[in-house]
Amino acid sequence: MDYRQLFSDDEVRQEFLDRFDEIAAGATGLGGFESVDAGLTVDRAAKAVERMSEGLWVPDDSGLEAIVERFTRPVHLVQKSTFRLPPDGRATSANLTARVERARRPLERAIPSVGRIDLRNHANLTWAGTGWMVGPRLVVTNRHVAETFAREARAGAGSGFAFKQSWTGKVVRPTLDWYHEHQQPEESRFRVTEVVWIEPDHRYDVALLRIDATGEDGENPPPPIALDTSGARVSGWIAVIGYPGQDSHADLADQQRIFDGVYRCKRLAAGRLTAVQGQDVVHHDATTLNGNSGSAVIDLDSGKAVALHFGGAAERSNVAVHAAAVARIVRAHG
């Protein structure tokens, strides 16, 4: 997380300090924050926030980082194609909550068009990541997600792409399920019929998939999410919609604190665009995990996709391919 960006918002910074006693009490009174330092007072938190704002914060074992992230960048549950905060009683920024609530209608339009990529016949994996509708029957995801189940038909021959085979000789079969919502039984599964494109340029972690015209129960696919190809607005508010999965390479205790032990289900995480790298890569500070690969990054004002999330580094930033680059790839290959 880029704390400098987060606490550049004076309202969020002041709210965090004004409510710190409430935040800390709620954290220590519930599961997952047992290691919070009992000496973490509001004065100590104020000094830490100042250092975070200046980019001088050195992580310690006080539990403050998890408290900050849980308060300022919570991860909403998606159920019945709408979203809500987890019912765990922990304090959440009213400033952020108000911003997300104002965007509820455009976010609820986008949610049904984001799905989990499940795998059949794979030797090690039951799912690969997230994908979303970007055109009629056309799904966009990451190159590194598609490469778990697809390859070039003949290396270097330009002859298209094929599904991989498992060690038993069975073909790996990916499907898109537009639900996988926490404690909800609904399914809407669409077979991936074709790997349309895997981008060879490693600057663009993008792949395109084609799905069946109807789902396994005869339903139509959800509508495409419109792409916002205008210039990325640094500090603009966004929401990442996807399927965070527990990450063995990140701090497991912090994950438990922030995600309440709920993984592999559809979630919505709000944040801001923090930087633009070149023309086609953007950074953001929404809370994500490895299953978010391929998630839609939605502008809170327009409800359009501004980027395709593809990765991040703990305690630094998340990175995504700008929608303008996605649009070029869709036009060229979709």
Describe, in plain words, how this protein is organized in 3D.
With about 325 residues, this protein is of the alpha+beta class. Among the domains are: about 70 residues, no CATH class; about 100 residues, Thrombin, subunit H (Beta Barrel), CATH 2.40.10. Helices cover about 25% and strands about 30% of the residues. It contains ten helices and 16 strands. Strands 11-12-13-16-15-14 form a six-stranded antiparallel β-barrel. The protein is globular, with a radius of gyration of 20 Å. The chain starts with a helix and ends with a helix.
Core attributes:
334 residues, 25% helix, six-stranded antiparallel barrel, 16 strands
Low-pLDDT stretches are none
Overall geometry: globular
Mean pLDDT: 90
Kindly report how far apart the N and C termini lie.
34 Å
Helix amount, in percent?
A: 10-25%
Please report the first level of CATH classification, the CATH class of one domain: Mainly Beta
Q: Round the Cα radius of gyration to an integer and report it.
A: 20 Å
Walk across the major sheet and give the strand order.
11-12-13-16-15-14
Number of E-state strands: 16
DSSP helical segment count? 10
Ordered list of secondary-structure elements with their pairings:
Blueprint: H1 3-6, H2 10-18, H3 20-28, H4 42-53, H5 64-72, E1 75-79, E2 82-84, H6 94-102, H7 104-110, E3 114-120, E4 127-135, E5 138-141, H8 143-146, E6 150-152, E7 161-163, E8 173-177, E9 189-198, E10 207-211, E11 237-242, H9 252-259, E12 267-277, E13 281-284, E14 296-299, E15 305-312, E16 318-322, H10 323-333
Antiparallel strand pairs: 1-2, 1-12, 3-4, 3-8, 4-5, 5-10, 6-7, 8-9, 9-10, 11-12, 11-14, 12-13, 13-16, 14-15, 15-16
